[in-house]
Amino acid sequence: MSKDLNYIVSKFQLEGDIENIRPLGEGFINDTFFVKTFGDTHPVYLLQITNKHGRTI
User: Fold this and answer.
1) Which keywords belong to this entry (predicted)?
2) Staple partner for 35: which of 6, 25, 45, 56, CB 3.0–4.6 Å?
3) pLDDT score at 39
4) pLDDT by residue (tens digit) across 1-57?
């Protein structure tokens, strides 16, 4: 999964280089990840992967 996340995040135009990607919480429907870039002045990002297999009510 880590290689996949690095590949996905590389497709976005982020400021700075990626320091780490880690899960944020325990989502029931979606998976959310915290993306940290190197340096204190660079922003942090949240990546959310939506569940495509859920059902609509």
Assistant:
1) Kinase, Transferase
2) 45
3) 82
4) 567 888 888 888 888 888 999 998 776 778 899 999 998 788 889 988 887 766 655
Q: What is the number of residues in the chain?
A: 57
Tell me how many degrees the CA angle 40-43-33 measures, rounded to the nearest 5: 115
Q: What is the phi-psi region of residue 25: left when phi exceeds 0, alpha when psi lies from -120 to 50, beta otherwise? A: left
Domain map (residue ranges) of the chain: 2-49
Across the beta sheet with 45-49, the strand order is 18-23, 31-37, 45-49
Q: Are 46 and 23 in contact (CB under 8 A)?
A: no
Using DSSP's 3-state secondary structure scheme, residue 22 falls into strand
Q: At 54, which amino acid appears?
A: G
Find the DSSP H helices in the chain. Answer: 2-10
